[in-house]
Design brief:
By secondary structure, the protein is of the alpha+beta class. The strands form three sheets. A five-stranded antiparallel beta sheet has the order 2-3-4-7-8, with helices on both faces. It has a two-stranded parallel ribbon with strand order 1-9. Strands 5-6 form a two-stranded antiparallel sheet. The chain starts with a strand and ends in an 8-residue tail after the last strand. The relative contact order is 0.21.
């Protein structure tokens, strides 16, 4: 089932998400719905807070980047209760977008490598290092679990210049092809 995406400005996007218990009911269905929502909205990642669930879960599939970033080919993963252990490598800038911030994109600098501990969809623990575009997507989605959006990583001057755009998003004054929940609007779109 395609789920509505929470727009920038919604309180759930500012909270640090809670850990998931292993016997959490309906987690497999939620994961399937998150992948369906991510593909429907043409995203490469989706964090649970973006669908109004303040839990430590995100999904990703970096395959759409494979032509330009070969390391992204075939990387489709589920991250439950992830914990970034280390960020390393040369910082690089990339224009990031976000389903919660439609029709926007900003250059964000992030380290090129991430070492992360997480549980997969079967609650099997992994500790892996990722680099390049895969590390970028992981860091972006992980930020959502920590109550941050990519615009929190740009300069305050740049963010001030985007003030009207951000307000329009939170008020629902954007044209999107998927359902959204807007914090400053009484109904969904």
């Amino acid at each position: 089932m395609v789920l509505p995406v929470v727009a920038y400005g919604h309180p759930v996007l500012k909270h640090v998400a809670e850990d998931i218990e292993e016997n959490s009911p309906e987690i497999q269905q939620l994961i399937a719905d998150m992948f369906e929502t991510m593909y429907y909205t043409e995203g490469v990642g989706l964090a649970a807070p973006q669908i109004n669930k303040s839990i430590r879960l995100f999904v990703m599939d970096s395959d759409p980047f494979k032509d330009k970033y070969p390391e992204g080919a075939g990387v489709k993963k589920v991250f439950i209760n992830p914990e970034i252990i280390e960020l390393s490598g040369e910082p690089w800038t990339f224009r990031e977008g976000c389903l919660s911030l439609p029709d926007m994109g900003e250059d964000v600098e992030r380290p090129s490598k991430v070492l992360i501990n997480y549980l997969d969809e079967n609650f099997v623990e992994h500790e892996e290092e990722f680099d390049g575009i895969v590390a970028r997507v992981i860091q972006h989605e992980y930020d959502h679990l920590e109550g941050k959006c990519y615009v929190d990583r740009i300069s305050s001057m740049r963010k001030m210049l985007l003030k009207n755009k951000l307000r329009n998003i939170s008020e629902g004054n954007v044209d999107v092809d998927y359902k959204m929940i807007f914090p400053n609007k009484k109904h969904r779109r």
